[in-house]
């Protein structure tokens, strides 16, 4: 009898998982004040969304009665209004760390997820922490959450004696929906009880299913509203004061305008006129000894906000726009640079993006950078010349992404770079697919890419990859392969270093979907990878590893793994010359990661990795420690220390006796070296309230490579002593960055920000092995730059202005 009852309950539970909850809303004419009190009569006359269920860690478990959650929605001709009452039997324990926008910190959280087309494709998500700040993002199953997207909306959170309350006003201009007279929207609500690390949703999100956005409930009752004119103007003005020892102090005043315009209910035009990125986060530069350039994160909001479409095919690396010049000037004898620009100025940029009700996503991006010169002088004749390092350049990206059956998509992507005059042009196209079964159990992803470079001679190339995966359940796996030809080159508007290879990879993993007596979360992984040179068939890379990540019942995170490269490989990239390679020995690596519960005032992250190569004394030791302390809900400090020691490393140093117009130098020089790296950083936040914060970010970095002796690369990839080479190729790089900023969101979408920045970097061949002396010399030397800036951005909504007049 007990078995029958159990299976009946199981069946009913399974059926309920597939059902969508429905919430009906009412229209109002009364004014709603967003004060977190929900005392207007309109709130008492509408339906209630309740009966939340756990998303994580115990998926499907009903929320306890003492923490029940009740949500109401009403609307008028301008906006959607949401009232959320979150009961808590211990309201004094509600966590409420105050953070900047789009940062949750250690705080309880409420969120609403809205899909105006109810197509399971894209959610607009709005969050309010118990600290009364805001966060918002666009979410798709393919690309996850994009918090660079920002909307303008109003909210208020209040802690009460029975829990906490949130009131929200979301203007229709912040959403996307059709012009139908009767609206049916996808809807879900989210609550996180931070001290328990428990997450709940209104409509169940079944973690056995790989999709998130397709498991929403339904909002009904919205009628006879029209999509508003989505026209937003964001004028700004900025003032910069620059100073450095030995240089003239000068001030610069800038002004410009950002525009957002809703072309229709699906598509939005974003444009920047006279762009200003002076207050973006600094780049974390490193001593780069490898054959490829360092890749940097994008910190400019225009190129991060709402760019999920442009990430299709991995062809777009936005740092190319306004990045380093594409041309290198060779100096003649007795010449030196007076001006050698490290970046190219952006003149303007625009993008059009959106998705139709039928699932067609369209993305168009265009940017223009200015003609840039280097100035060179002859120290003997005093003759000065100007050389173009980057001509006037036009960058274009086009994306067409058709979704169908809610779970699948096929996309076409094209990137094009056109440079004025006799300079390199580039065109790259790709066809990508993401095909999944209707239940999101299995999927096939892949792409076909083709590149064309127009130089003195045409350069063509192709790239193909495919991956088959099981994407749901406790046991999941994927199998895949890549094939890249020698001439494939997407680096004019993308970033791709490795070419001329084919590879095979696989992954098998097991995860628990609900907590056990010992763990809240557990995942085991096995990964395998083999890579071969396409021309010779030589093994270029191989790795097999097993690893696990565990979240304990006390919400501490623990992970460890072991990986082996059981075969020696042939590295065709490090020699920096076509068709040459160096043999890399077998290796084994181990790692352990530990992170304590951030709910505690004191927490720490520890990451260790040790790698041993099959050569005497050749090893890599990597240790990172990151303690953090939350003094109060307003004040947080985080310190990070990283130490890396690479002993008996073998790396490229020089090539000699070469005709540099050929690809066959007589001798390629490697160095047997020790590479030591120290990195220290401090980040801090002090919040006056949910709209005003002071922020501190300091980073000190020092790395040196000390060459013990030099080696000659043989044609068979082995290295032999080369005692006759005596040039000093040691490397000693120091970098210092310090930002102290103040941000005040003084009105919806409007911000005043102050920034003081000092920074400096230095490279030399002589090595001083005393850390303190290196840091002191860098901070106190004459190369340290100081910048003070103030920027004001004001948000203007056309609809508000229209209504006032």
Keywords:
24-stranded antiparallel barrel, single chain, globular, 5% helix, disordered N terminus, 45 strands, Immunoglobulin-like, 9-stranded mixed beta sheet, mainly beta, 805 residues
The proportion of residues in beta strands is over 45%
> What fraction, in percent, of the residue positions are helical?
under 10%
How many helices in DSSP terms?
4
The low-confidence parts are 1-17
CATH architecture of the domain at 19-223: Sandwich
- CATH topological fold name of the domain at 19-223: Immunoglobulin-like
SS-based class: mainly beta
Biggest sheet features: 24 strands, antiparallel, barrel
Cα radius of gyration in angstroms? 29 Å
Shape: globular
Cα distance spanning the termini: 72 Å
CATH class category of the domain at 19-223? Mainly Beta
Account of the 3D structure:
By secondary structure, the protein is mostly beta strands. It has a domain of 205 residues: Immunoglobulin-like (Sandwich). 5% of the residues lie in helices and 54% in strands. The chain is built from four helices and 45 strands. The strands form five sheets. The chain has a 24-stranded antiparallel beta barrel. Strands 1, 3, 6, 7, 8, 9, 12, 13 and 14 form a nine-stranded mixed beta sheet that branches. The chain has a five-stranded mixed beta sheet with strand order 2-4-5-11-10, with no helix packed on it. A hairpin with a 3-residue loop joins strand 26 and strand 27. The N terminus is likely disordered.
């Amino acid at each position: 009898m007990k078995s029958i009852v159990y299976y009946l309950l199981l069946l009913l539970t399974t059926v309920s998982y597939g059902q969508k909850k429905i919430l009906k809303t009412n229209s109002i004419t009364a004014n709603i004040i967003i004060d977190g009190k929900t005392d207007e009569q309109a709130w008492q006359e509408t339906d209630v969304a309740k009966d939340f269920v756990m998303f994580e860690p115990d998926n499907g478990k009903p929320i306890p009665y003492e923490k029940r959650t009740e949500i109401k929605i009403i609307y008028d001709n301008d906006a959607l209004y949401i009232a959320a009452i979150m009961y808590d039997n211990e309201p004094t324990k509600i966590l409420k760390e105050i953070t900047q926008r789009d940062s949750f910190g250690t705080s309880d959280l409420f969120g609403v997820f809205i899909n105006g087309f109810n197509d399971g494709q894209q959610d607009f998500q709005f969050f309010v922490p118990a600290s009364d700040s805001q966060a918002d993002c666009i979410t798709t199953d393919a690309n996850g959450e994009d918090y660079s997207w920002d909307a303008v909306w109003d909210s208020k959170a209040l802690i009460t004696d029975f829990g906490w309350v949130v009131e929200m006003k979301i203007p229709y201009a912040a959403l996307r929906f059709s012009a139908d007279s009767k609206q049916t929207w996808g809807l879900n609500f989210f609550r996180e009880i931070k001290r328990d690390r428990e997450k709940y949703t209104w409509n169940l999100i079944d973690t056995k299913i790989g999709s998130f956005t397709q498991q929403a409930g339904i909002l009904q009752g919205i009628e006879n509203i029209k999509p508003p004119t989505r026209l937003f103007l964001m004028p700004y003005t900025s003032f910069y004061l620059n100073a450095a020892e030995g240089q003239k102090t000068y001030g610069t005043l800038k002004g410009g305008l950002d525009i957002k315009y809703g072309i229709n209910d699906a598509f939005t035009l974003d444009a920047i006129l006279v762009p200003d990125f002076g207050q973006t986060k600094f780049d974390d530069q490193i001593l780069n000894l490898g054959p490829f350039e360092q890749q940097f994160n994008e910190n400019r909001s225009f190129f991060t906000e709402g760019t999920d479409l442009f990430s299709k095919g991995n062809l777009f690396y936005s740092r190319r726009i306004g990045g380093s010049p594409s041309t290198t000037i060779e100096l003649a004898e007795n010449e030196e640079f007076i001006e050698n620009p490290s970046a190219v100025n952006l003149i303007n940029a625009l993008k059009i993006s959106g998705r139709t009700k039928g699932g067609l996503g369209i993305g168009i991006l265009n940017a223009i950078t200015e003609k840039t010169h280097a100035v060179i002088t002859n120290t003997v004749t005093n003759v000065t010349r100007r050389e173009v390092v980057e001509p006037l350049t036009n960058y274009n990206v086009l994306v067409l992404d058709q979704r169908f059956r809610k779970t699948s998509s096929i996309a076409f992507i094209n990137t094009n770079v056109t440079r004025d005059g006799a300079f390199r042009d580039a065109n790259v196209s790709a066809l990508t697919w993401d095909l999944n079964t209707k239940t999101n159990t299995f999927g096939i992803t892949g792409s076909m890419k083709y590149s064309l470079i127009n130089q003195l001679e045409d350069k063509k190339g192709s790239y193909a990859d495919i991956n088959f995966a099981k994407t749901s359940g406790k046991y999941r796996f994927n199998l895949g392969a890549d094939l890249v030809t020698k001439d494939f080159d997407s680096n004019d508007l993308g970033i791709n270093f490795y070419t001329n290879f084919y590879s095979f990879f696989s992954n098998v993993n097991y995860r628990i979907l609900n907590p056990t007596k010992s763990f809240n979360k557990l995942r085991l992984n096995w990964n395998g990878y083999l890579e071969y040179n396409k021309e010779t068939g030589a093994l270029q890379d191989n790795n097999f590893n097993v690893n696990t990540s565990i979240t304990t019942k006390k919400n501490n995170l623990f992970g460890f793994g072991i990986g082996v490269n059981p075969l020696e490989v042939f590295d065709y990239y490090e020699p920096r010359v076509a068709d040459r390679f160096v043999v890399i020995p077998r290796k084994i690596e181990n790692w352990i990661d530990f992170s304590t519960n951030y709910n505690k005032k004191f927490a720490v992250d520890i990451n260790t990795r040790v790698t041993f190569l099959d050569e005497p004394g050749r090893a890599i030791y990597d240790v990172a420690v990151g303690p953090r302390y939350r003094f109060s809900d307003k004040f947080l400090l985080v310190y990070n220390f990283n130490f890396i020691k690479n002993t008996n490393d073998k790396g490229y140093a020089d090539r000699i006796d070469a005709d540099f117009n050929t690809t066959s130098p007589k001798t390629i020089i490697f160095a047997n070296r020790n590479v030591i790296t120290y990195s220290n950083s401090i980040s801090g936040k002090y919040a006056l309230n949910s709209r005003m914060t002071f922020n501190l970010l300091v980073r000190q970095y020092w790395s040196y490579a000390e060459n013990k002796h030099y080696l000659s690369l043989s044609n068979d990839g082995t290295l032999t002593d080369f005692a006759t080479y005596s040039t000093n190729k040691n490397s000693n790089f120091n970098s210092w960055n310090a930002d102290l900023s103040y941000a005040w969101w003084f009105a919806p979408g409007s911000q005043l920000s102050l920034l003081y920045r000092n920074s400096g970097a230095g490279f030399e061949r002589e090595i001083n092995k005393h850390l303190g002396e290196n840091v002191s010399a860098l901070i106190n030397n004459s190369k340290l730059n100081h910048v003070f800036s103030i920027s004001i951005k004001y948000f203007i909504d056309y609809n508000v202005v229209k209504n006032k007049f």
